[in-house]
Amino acid sequence: MNKEVYYVKSLEEDFATKTIKNKKKVIFQTIENIIKTKNIKPNTKSFGREKRLSCTVLSKNYTKTYRPHGIIFQTLQKPDHILPFDLVLLSATDNIIVHYYRIKNNLHIYYNHSLINGFEKFFFKDFNSLLNKYSSPLIAWKEVNKFRKQNGYNALPKNKFRLAEYNEAVFYKSIKIKPIAIYGYLPETIKIARELNLPRFISAKQFFNKINN
Predict the structure, then answer these.
(1) Helix ranges, 62-181 (H)
(2) Is the residue at 1 inside a domain?
(3) Which of 45, 117, 131, 138 has the greatest count of CB atoms below 10 A from its CB?
(4) Residues 6+ apart with CB under 8 A from 202
(5) Where are the beta strands (DSSP E) in the chain?
(6) pTM reported for the whole predicted model
(7) Rounded-to-integer distance, Cα 109 and Cα 107, Å
(8) pLDDT of 77 higher than 60
(9) Which residue, among 112, 131, 109, has the nearest Cα to 57 in the 3D structure?
(10) Burial code of 77-91, b = ≥16 C-beta within 10 A, e = fewer?
(11) Class of residue 137 by CB neighbours under 10 A (exposed 0-12, middle 13-18, buried 19+)
(12) In angstroms, how far is CA 181 from the centroid of its own chain?
């Protein structure tokens, strides 16, 4: 793993994080506020766990992201734990949906699922430990399906594999960041990056490939 560690926080199309309030999704923190304060706050509360900030750590085999737009940053703070895939793959249901747009207006229902007993086996204290066990998404995918079947749930079909193509680094407290870049394919991304005086990339993968060439 490179000495320089880069994280990604994916954002919605309006470049903001969201949270659930009275069963409705509302803006929690805008990209402008993130850049101004150099701080990202925990915004997600689901699966019976405390409010958290979920990000992605970029590496050779983990260059995908939860959403196609967001911010790339660095921080000196360490994640409380890291998973090799989206936490939703450990939820105690066979009704797992891949595409966010299908659940974004019913998050209060979708995020109310519990987690399969023993889910902690997929939690790691640092990214190197995770890579030593799950060096690629395919390895993690096979293991989580094995775990699900052992606990009475269906193995996930291939069309859910997207949820294993990125990892999930979890912070339970606000983190101080050094903003690095904005990523996203939408034309508005160029304008946002210019206004925030940050470089813009079409994807996090494009950024990662550039810094490693």
Answers:
(1) 107-110, 127-133, 137-150
(2) no
(3) 131
(4) 183, 184, 185
(5) 7-10, 16-21, 24-30, 39-40, 53-57, 69-74, 81-83, 168-171, 175-176, 178-184, 200-201
(6) 0.90
(7) 5
(8) yes
(9) 131
(10) eebebbbbbbbbbbb
(11) buried
(12) 16
Query: Count H helices, E strands: the chain?
Result: 6, 11
What is the distance between the alpha carbons of residues 163 and 137, in angstroms, rounded to a whole number?
9
User: Residue holding tokens 């979890």?
Assistant: 170
Burial 37-76 (b: 16+ CB within 10 A, else e): eeebbbbbebbeeeebbbbbbbbebbbbbbebbbbbbebe
Sign of the Cα pseudo-torsion (74, 128, 145, 164, in order):
positive
Q: Is residue 2 part of a domain?
A: no
Domain with 125, as residue range(s), is 7-211
Is 50 domain-assigned? yes
For residue range 27-63, list pLDDT tens digits in order.
Answer: 999 999 999 999 999 988 776 677 899 999 999 999 9
Give domain status of residue 141, yes or no. yes
Cβ atoms within 10 A of the Cβ of 124, count? 20
